[in-house]
Description:
By secondary structure, the chain is mainly alpha-helical.
Amino acid sequence: xxxILPVAIGLVALLYxxxxxxxxxxxxxVMTLLGMPSAVVRPTALLLNVIVATIASVQFIRAGHFRSRxxxxxxxxxxPCAFVGGTLTLPTAxxxxxxxxxxxxxxxxxxxxxxxxMSADSPTVExxxxxxPPMVWAAIGGMIGLLSGLTGVGGGVxxxxxxxxxxxxxxxxxxxxxxxxxxxxxxxxxxGGLLAGRPFPAAGLPVxxxxxxxxxxxxxxxxFRLPARTLRLLMAAVLAFASVKLLGRPLGL
Length: 253
């Protein structure tokens, strides 16, 4: 094991957990840069996702930001789709290039929004979750679940920009819905991988401990301490990092 791996994993977990994410794109980037084989990278990222997303879910729910009527339609549709996606191995270079552009545009929008005055409870636009029927959220959840299973991530990098674009909820509510969404999708993706014959990841204790510590610190700060503007800037940084990682993969970076 590379000596730098636990430190890098802990820092990724801290940053991502502060915005309700679990860090799969960051873990994948770190492990890929360190030369770990792809057969190990994908399931290990999902396992670390489960750990950090569990911690983040507890923290954001404890802080009172969770909204069940938004979460359940998304989750019920996403889980079986993530399971199916986890059983598949498909070429994704072109898709990741397009997705990277979408995420980069989302990050730029959030940076612009961060310059405007807004309260901690104010979404970008009027909340739409009460106006959209559950089937709309179920369709979004299903598509994101399939993409999550295919790419080996929990879906936060897909869900956050979608909810922000729709003005679905305040920022901390989006984070509080995203964390358990990532948890159930990561579990489903792991299950699909096991069904497809992939081995269960054997992450070392230092890596797991680093993920736990980073997840605890990051999610506590994000749920209880950070103002909405700082949270928006961190979300922009997370999405920008994910976009660079996705755009760089087709180029071999």
